[in-house]
Automatic annotation (TrEMBL):
This is tRNA N6-adenosine threonylcarbamoyltransferase. Substrate binds at V133, V134, S135, G136, G137, D166, G179, D183, N272. One of its GO terms (molecular function) is tRNA N(6)-L-threonylcarbamoyladenine synthase activity. Binds 1 Fe(2+) ion per subunit. InterPro entries: ATPase_NBD, Gcp-like_dom, KAE1/TsaD, Peptidase_M22_CS, TsaD. The gene is tsaD. It is an enzyme of class 2 (transferase). Its main location: cytoplasm. It catalyses: L-threonylcarbamoyladenylate + adenosine(37) in tRNA = N(6)-L-threonylcarbamoyladenosine(37) in tRNA + AMP + H(+). Its cofactor is Fe(2+). It holds the Pfam family TsaD. Fe cation binds at H111, H115, D301. Keywords: Acyltransferase, Cytoplasm, Iron, Metal-binding, Transferase, tRNA processing. Required for the formation of a threonylcarbamoyl group on adenosine at position 37 (t(6)A37) in tRNAs that read codons beginning with adenine. Is involved in the transfer of the threonylcarbamoyl moiety of threonylcarbamoyl-AMP (TC-AMP) to the N6 group of A37, together with TsaE and TsaB. TsaD likely plays a direct catalytic role in this reaction.
């Protein structure tokens, strides 16, 4: 099976060809970060316009790199949500046109299922598992008892982890997207500033990061009122320590309660060095729990992960059709 994946949910135009759900033959990502940087975030209209300009080129490049034509493909998988409606529609319409022209089945993929299945491009999944999804728009603990089965056992009540990183970065005058910059500063600083950790109710797997974000802003504000300066490195380190502490503690508790075989890390914030090493350390002496972390290039948005998740649906015989539409708020539900 050769699946062409297409991803346009936010600010990367991406296409990839995957063999048998596991092997990357090509993985092309055209990032728009430079166009959005000066606005400090993604501007939906600009994103759509870039997708229109890039989609054909990116798809052609993915086929070329894989040394294939449309005749060699088995199916086309495309992100149908969640994401920016105008951005999603560009990918969906391209997928529909190509599927129709070349008489190929079309598969609609949930973007977060894609982030989770990025792990399958590295290593086989074993169930049951817990996936910690940390991205620009999501912070979720997802329980999977088999392929295509997703149960969200915890989620953020306010900001997503990546969103908190980007907002804190903005208050420190760091460029967008701020996550990697905070990560870098954090490693040069000391977690010497006391910041809150939102544990929420006793057994809760939910998250909340807006209080932490406000605490960072207040710390900066109060210091400047007193005419003091705060070392941004220490503030970044303290913020990161708080985020990582809550994420790792809840993930570990879920892994034990649900008696999982694997813990998966997924989403753009999975690129975070502090989070990766803290999870590794936390699981080091947990016998029988395997930790899976995708390489950096598969953590942020790409189409290889969409094709990998699409392959699972293909094998289950779950297809879309030419009436497929964009679903900006699509919930992550099981495909079973
Ligand atoms: P979603 O997947 O929820 O729809 P998205 O696709 O916009 O959102 P991703 O591309 O998965 O998000 O991830 C982007 C986010 O990851 C940004 O918020 C970015 O700051 C963050 N990020 C990337 N690298 C790091 C890092 N090293 N440390 C912390 N955050 C990071
Ligand atoms: Mg992005
Ligand atoms: Fe994403």
């Amino acid at each position: 099976r050769y699946i062409l994946g297409i991803e346009t949910s936010c600010d990367e135009t991406a296409a990839a060809v995957i063999k048998n759900g596991r092997t990357i033959l090509s993985n092309i990502v055209a990032s728009q970060i430079d166009s959005h940087k000066r606005f400090g975030g993604v501007v939906p209209e600009i994103a759509s316009r870039h997708h229109v300009e890039q989609i054909t080129v990116v798809v052609e490049e993915a086929l070329q790199k894989a040394n294939m034509t449309f005749q060699d493909l088995t199916a086309i998988a495309v992100t149908e949500g969640p994401g920016l409606v105008g951005a999603l529609l560009i990918g969906i319409n391209a997928a529909k046109a190509l599927a129709f022209a070349h008489n190929l089945p079309i598969i609609g993929v949930h973007h977060i299922a894609g982030h989770i299945y990025a792990n399958q491009l590295v290593h086989e999944l074993s169930f049951p598992l817990i996936a910690l999804v940390v991205s620009g728009g999501h912070t979720e603990l997802v329980y999977m008892k088999e392929h295509g089965s997703f149960e969200v056992i915890g989620e953020t009540l306010d900001d997503a982890a990546g969103e908190a990183y980007d907002k804190v970065a903005r208050t420190l005058n760091l460029p967008y997207p701020g996550g990697p910059h905070i990560d870098r500063l954090a490693h040069e600083g000391m977690a010497s500033i006391d910041l809150p950790r939102a544990w929420l109710e006793e057994r809760s797997y939910n998250f909340s990061f807006s209080g932490l974000k406000s605490a960072v802003i207040n710390t900066l504000h109060n210091a400047s009122q007193r005419g003091e300066t705060i070392d941004p490195k220490n503030l970044a380190a303290s913020f990161q320590a708080s985020v990582v502490d809550v994420l790792v503690t809840k993930t570990l508790r879920a892994a034990e309660e649900y008696k999982v075989k694997q813990v998966l890390l997924a989403g753009g914030v999975a690129a975070n060095k502090g989070l990766r090493s803290a999870l590794e350390n936390a699981l080091i002496d947990k016998q029988g729990i395997e930790l899976m972390i995708p390489p950096l290039s598969l953590c942020t948005d790409n189409a290889a992960m969409i094709a990998a998740a699409g392959d699972v649906l293909y094998q289950k015989g779950i297809f879309g059709d030419l009436k497929m539409n964009a679903h900006p708020g699509l919930p992550l539900t099981s495909y079973l």
